[in-house]
């Protein structure tokens, strides 16, 4: 995909007409500037370069008639997805899909600042060919994990599998279990707190009354007076949901530089441990478990001692 570099000196100012009302902002901009892709405008939105009535836009924002749009175009490097022979720890694979244990530091797909070395680059090298989805920079991608979060990451190899997996995620039919090591001892139960973009710190999400519904079930599996091993089941799929919810109740994840202190560990100790779902094509039940990474095992030994038993976690009824 080639994005011609544009000057960043003169922003474009647009006004929403009656005919354009009701269209998502990223789609509206793609229609107005057809020489750029929707992905390009989504990146501009993520970087805060698109304003609606003077406020940073969100990708899902639907402008109303009369709204004033300001677009600050940014020069973007030419992107050409290249296969890269990056080792993958494969948990499951067939002709329809692939599941890996994502390591810390791996970015899922190309984005500003990470145009290579991503899971997508590794996926192309491993599979040879992936059915394209709606976004040419994200072939096979049906969900994401944050860069420093480890654990189960799934990709589709075919278009039918891609469509069905997205449906399973969007309808909350993927049963997820995360492990998190957090400060303090959160109470067992359900965190029901809506999540939205932080009003001033635009890279952060926050628990907000006018945010999107977000529900996480948590259970403390171990505690040593200072920190806890938490089993977390997100019932919804909001950005940074577990990280935001644990911060919201005063128990941020250890190592989380965005939502906590980030001073005890060089990454947030969050691991996508277990995933259960029905195969998107055959309907057969699939149960995946991702081995705990070494750095997190060391923290678990501090917390639980040498008696830590991963099989016991795997068989947990929670």
Nutshell version of this structure?
With 318 residues, the chain is of the alpha+beta class.
- Structural class, by secondary structure, is alpha+beta
**Separation, N- and C-terminal Cα atoms:** 44 Å
> Tell me, what's the shape?
globular
Chain oligomer state:
single chain
User: Which stretches are poorly predicted, pLDDT < 50 over at least 5 residues?
Assistant: 1-9
Estimated helix fraction: 10-25%
Tell me the layout of helices and strands:
Layout: E1 12-15, H1 25-32, H2 38-46, E2 50-52, E3 55-56, E4 68-71, E5 90-93, E6 97-102, H3 119-127, E7 150-156, H4 159-170, E8 175-183, E9 189-192, E10 195-197, E11 205-207, E12 215-223, E13 227-234, H5 241-248, E14 270-278, E15 285-289, H6 294-304, H7 310-314
Parallel strand pairs: 7-14
Antiparallel strand pairs: 1-4, 2-3, 2-4, 5-6, 6-7, 8-13, 8-14, 9-12, 10-11, 12-13, 14-15
Helix pairs in contact: 1-2
Description:
- The chain is of the alpha+beta class and 318 residues long.
- 19% of the residues lie in helices and 25% in strands.
- The chain contains 7 helices and 15 strands.
- Strands 5, 6, 7, 8, 9, 12, 13, 14 and 15 form a 9-stranded mixed beta sheet that branches. The chain has a 4-stranded antiparallel beta sheet with strand order 1-4-2-3.
- Helix 1 crosses helix 2.
- The longest helix has 12 residues.
- The relative contact order is 0.12.
């Amino acid at each position: 995909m080639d994005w011609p570099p544009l000057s960043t000196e003169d922003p474009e100012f647009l006004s929403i007409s009656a005919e354009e009302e009701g269209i998502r902002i990223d789609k509206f901009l793609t229609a107005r500037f057809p020489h750029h892709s929707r992905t390009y405008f989504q990146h501009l939105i993520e970087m805060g370069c698109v304003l609606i009535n003077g406020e940073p836009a969100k990708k899902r924002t639907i402008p109303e008639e009369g709204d004033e749009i300001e677009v600050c175009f940014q020069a973007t490097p030419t992107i050409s997805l290249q296969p890269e022979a990056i080792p993958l720890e494969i948990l499951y694979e067939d002709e329809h899909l692939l599941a890996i244990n994502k390591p810390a530091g791996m970015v899922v797909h190309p984005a500003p600042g990470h145009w290579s070395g991503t899971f997508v680059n590794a996926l192309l090298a491993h599979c040879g060919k992936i059915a394209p989805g709606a976004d040419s920079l994200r072939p096979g991608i049906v969900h994401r994990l944050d860069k420093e979060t480890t654990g189960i990451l799934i990709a589709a190899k075919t278009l039918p599998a891609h469509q069905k997996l997205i449906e399973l995620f969007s309808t909350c039919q993927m049963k997820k279990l995360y492990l998190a090591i957090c400060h303090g001892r959160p109470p067992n139960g359900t965190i029901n707190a809506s999540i939205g973009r932080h009003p001033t710190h635009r890279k952060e999400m926050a628990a907000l009354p006018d945010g999107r519904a977000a529900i996480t079930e948590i259970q403390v599996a171990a505690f040593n007076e200072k920190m806890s091993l938490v089993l977390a089941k997100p019932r919804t799929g909001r950005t940074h949901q577990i990280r935001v919810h644990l911060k919201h109740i005063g128990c941020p994840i250890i190592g989380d530089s965005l939502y906590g202190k980030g001073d005890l560990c060089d990454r947030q100790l969050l691991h996508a441990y277990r995933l259960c779902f029905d195969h998107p094509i055959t309907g057969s039940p699939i149960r995946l478990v991702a081995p705990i990474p070494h750095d997190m095992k060391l923290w678990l030994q501090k917390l639980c001692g040498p008696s830590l038993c991963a099989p016991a976690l795997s068989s947990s009824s929670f």
